[in-house]
Every structure is written in structure tokens, then in C-alpha cells.
Write a structure and sequence with these properties.
about 70 residues, mainly beta, four-stranded antiparallel β-sheet, about 50% strand
């Protein structure tokens, strides 16, 4: 089963979901899946968290419709 950030990956049950993976740069890619079960949308964001937990970097990477 593919993960949420991989092609064809999404959370069809429950209406929304979230996944994260660490990128080679050390930043984190967040994936938010939402929408109806038959046409979920997945948004991708790249973030970097500071030493105190605050966001230092936030970039919208795009979206896909599964």
C-alpha cells in the first residue's frame, strides 16, 4: 500500500489524513489528504522546524487529485 506522499497514496476513509517524511535536505514534507472518498485531494508542503519548535521555513509544493 503506497504512503500518502507517494503516487496513488491517500486516505480514503475518514475524509482527511496527514503524513510526513524527512527529505534528504533535513526538511520535512507534509502531506494533507482531504475531500470525499471518491475524489480525495492531497496537498504537499515542505517545512523546517527550528530548535524551539517554531517554523523556520514553509513552502507550498502543490496538490494532486487522486
Amino acid at each position: 500500500m503506497p504512503r500518502a506522499w507517494q503516487p496513488k497514496g491517500n486516505f480514503r476513509e475518514g475524509g482527511w489524513g496527514m503524513a510526513a517524511q524527512v527529505l534528504p535536505t533535513g526538511r520535512i514534507e507534509l502531506s494533507f489528504s482531504h475531500g470525499p472518498w471518491d475524489e480525495p485531494h492531497c496537498e504537499f508542503h515542505e517545512v523546517d522546524v527550528g530548535p524551539r519548535g517554531g517554523l523556520r521555513y514553509f513552502k507550498y509544493l502543490g496538490f494532486t487529485i487522486s
